[in-house]
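[agent] plan:
  1. take the single chain provided in the ticket
  2. run structure prediction with default settings
  3. attach structure tokens to the ticket
  4. add a short note for the reviewer (M.T.)
[agent] executing step 1
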Amino acid sequence: MVMEAVSGYPGYNEMMPKSTATIAEILKLNGYNTAAFGKWHQVPMWESSVAGPFDHRATGMGFEYFYGFVAGMTQQYTPNLYENTTPIEPYFNNKNYYLTTDLADKAITWIRYQHSVAPQKPFFVYFAPGAAHAPHQVPKEWIEQYKGKFDQGWNVYRQETFERQKKLGVIPADTKLTPWPTFVASWDSLSVDQKRLYAREMEVFAGFLTEADHEIGRITDAIDQIGELDNTLIIYIAGDNGASPEGGLEGTANEDQFLNGIPANPQHELKMIDQLGGPYAFNNYPVGWAWASNTPFRWTKQVASHLGGITNGMVISCGPGA
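[agent] step 2 finished; step 3 output follows
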């Protein structure tokens, strides 16, 4: 269970026992160098301070180096970061700081150091950026690439995705699309202002995900530059469970409102539309986009009884030497 919702039952108490081992621990014992970058959501809340204990930190579970955040989410411009077990503030006095870029820079540097000193040793990198978990934050140049791309709305987008999946062979040609939920408004029933706001929230999400994909591409290029891409197994997982409904029915400029049961205020969201994706918003899109993003399945993240709640896209790339 994630650390914010633990219970006292075995398997649900957020405490991986000493009798188990992560893949990093196993690989390290077999001669690999290991490092983790980004999200580490494995630490019980009572162990999350600088006082430790640190057994459940990445460096206590098989990773020789860690650079990232100990939580389910964090700000992209002013994140709560740790290097190993030490709190750091790399964004201080750096107006151009952006977390996903920083994570990629650190991963690339670590890979190059490792290879230059001990090129014969294999390495394992776990790279888990905050994208595209809320808050959806990304510089505007990435958002603007998608301007107008979602004006057709979530119902049409869902159908377009479904047809493209069949054409590409991602799903069988005779697959039937699951029904649209009655409790989520159809796009055509929304007001002009709602459509404008909700389309912008999806533009931000798309830009956020694209920027993260770009950074992962930089890491892949760095592995290629040291001549090890054909000798590397890459497992790329898009998502953490299905697309998330945490933005609620109307989306939010501050997800903490939703998590604390504070009703959405569309007029307030509209006033902040130009700040979405920036450092002063903690935005997330409406559940309509989450449902559409889980095409062809039903439901969303947090609903484990349906495939839409738990399904991630995954691509595995294996070079001839891996």
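[agent] step 4 note for reviewer: The mean pLDDT is 94.
[agent] ticket updated
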